[in-house]
Amino acid sequence: MEDPAAIWRSVPGVGQNYETAPGQAVEEPPFSAVKRFAQTLEVLFQRAPSDNACLVGWKDNLAGQEERGYRGVTKHKRTRRFEAHIWHDKKQVYLGGFVNDVDAARSHDIMSLWCKGWHVASLNYAAEVYSVLKPFASLLSVADVRSCLRSCSKRQVAKDKASAPAEFGSCRKKIKARSVRARQISPKRYSSNSHRSSQG
Q1: Is 169 left (phi over 0), alpha (psi -120 to 50) or beta?
Q2: Which domain covers residue 37, as residue numbers?
Q3: Which terminus of the chain, N or C, has fewer Cβ atoms within 10 Å?
Q4: Is the pTM of this model over 0.85?
């Protein structure tokens, strides 16, 4: 498992402005805390978690392939994104759509730690993986964490779209369809024409 202190030191501005170790409270303005928390999330999501820290097993999906049975993660059929969500106060809270299932699972865990405490059992990865976020526990609300997670997912999706190749036919010019009105035939005219054809 990776040392949380290494992640903490890699966040810009932490070592310069605050002599704070992981697990200790950080005394700083709320806006600065939210910004620093978002930076810590970016660094945390860029690092692959250890398989030894994963608490969930493998399962078979509908396609017959094995995948992790992450809690609070579903795959959208149309966008193919992995959406993270959690139940809080009898409501399902949407946390964002991510490119991979690991980041979605970690988003669920982070929100679960804020909603249910740091000693919950329903996590995808061990709580020690997120110990770098403990200094923000007393500074940020549930709404702040949810906003940071959703912003992180939006940036991740935007970066993935920018790096993806353009689809075939995406530059094709759109053609507007013209509406065609059906010509109405007068019943009187139709009856006169049929009368002439019968006489001939």
Answers
A1: left
A2: 4-163
A3: C
A4: no
